[in-house]
Amino acid sequence: LSLVTGSDHVTFECPVTMIASVPVELRPFARSTADGTIDIGAEVRRIYAASNEYLPSTEDVRVIISDAEGNTVWRSDAGLMFSTMIMKVEPQDRGAVAVVERRWNGRNAEGSTVPQGTYRADIIIPAIPLAYQASVEFPWPPQR
User: Fold this and answer.
1) Can you tell me the distance from the alpha carbon of 121 to that of 32, in angstroms, rounded to the nearest whole number?
2) pLDDT tens digits for 76-105?
3) Three-state DSSP class for 50?
């Protein structure tokens, strides 16, 4: 940084760290519900507008749950079909917050109840050109 006046030229030196920025910030959560299931998702905060960003289908969020060994036990998109439709990633306004979530009942892809333990949920907004992702660990069954 330089400051130039009519009589002086002063230079200030300070280190600058560059940090890559993304258009949205995800704050993941796993919340137990009154009926014994768990809501898994994220608060999505818009940092800045991205002109070329979109969702290629009606799927606004995908949740993938894995056990402690990293095996996928459940996916929110398994067996579902989504309409092909260009959609906006919400929220659109800078500083605004939206919530995306899916409810999980503790059953695996075959419909069996999963054993007690610690699980990991990957929360993904399948945007193009860049998918946004965050993860959260949580106990099953949920603790109240």
Assistant:
1) 14
2) 998 878 888 899 999 999 999 999 999 999
3) coil
